[in-house]
Amino acid sequence: MLTNEAIEAHLSYLRPAVEALGHKLDQVSKKIDAGLSPLLEKPNDTFDEMVKKRDQNRQELNECTSRILATVDEIKLWVCIGAILASGASIAHSLGWI
Question: Which residue of 1, 31, 69, 70 shows the fewest CB atoms closer than 10 Å?
Answer without folding.
Answer: 1
